[in-house]
Amino acid sequence: MKIIRSLELVQSEFSKGSSLTLGNFDGIHMGHQTLLLRTVEKARELNIPSVVVTYYPNPSVVLGKKPNFKYLTLEEEKETLISQFGIDYLLVLEFTEKLSKMRAEDFLENIIIRTLNARYIVIGYNHFFGEGRRGDFNLLNSQKEKYGFEVELKEAVLEKNSKISSSLIRSHLEKGEMKEAKSLLGRNYHFQGKVFEGHKRGRTIDFPTANLEISDEQLLPAIGVYVCFVRINHKSFGGMLNIGQNPTFDGTKLHVEVNIFDFSGDLYGNFIEVELLDKIRDEKKFSGIEELKSQLILDKETSLKILNFD
Fold first, then answer.
1. N or C, which end of the chain has less CB nearby within 10 Å?
2. Long-range CB contacts (< 8 A, 24+ apart) of 295-300?
3. Which DSSP category does 71 fall into?
4. Cα 54 from chain centre
């Protein structure tokens, strides 16, 4: 997949036309996946390249609607996930106030038609483009004969009678509901972190942890203890992750640390990926080190059962 980060960098790739979809695609959830798969299907049918148009930063951030917005998927991961669906080109438009004020008709004519030469457009039921969010299926449908393209509307994908959406996934994550989030994402929720040197308290009780520095843009699930997989240099290990403030040690700052089962080695400065399976308990304050250690032993037993490692 070729990634294009500026309209000025588009060359003659689309002389025969393109099959195109557009959206924010945060999370690349099951609803997004239907758009991507249909776009690729039509591209192959028409023998033209498939294109995804997306935006960064998220419009909610730029327009001040959600200044503390956190992403389900950071930009690099989103690009990786989109490429796995066989998309040929990804156009990442820098979302600015100027772009937000572009008339939907101008966006259609200048970007979708003149630049990307769209012959087939797949649009989701809840995606809008252009000033006043006027760009939608109805607008595209009214202009298809003028510009000579076809347009297809994709309705919401349902899971247990609920519309799959990034906001619904966020709601589950904020409650620590990992299985529910997985059913909407089509995969376990995961994120990357850079290992840094911590207080090394875990070593003193035989539960060494890797302290993770997480991007400020990444959405973290609810405070608590989770069973997880940890990927290090393409190898997978079981583990348990704590998101919290270390109340036993009177901590106040949020920490993310993972105990990796059956692993030894120096990870400082390395990026590792954590894939969360389930929340096993809330964070709590213990009376001391021994009570904490006893609980961690129980947590590991619970984690191993979930991982089917026992």
1. C
2. 296/205, 296/207, 296/259, 299/225, 299/240, 300/207, 300/240, 300/259, 300/261
3. B
4. 13
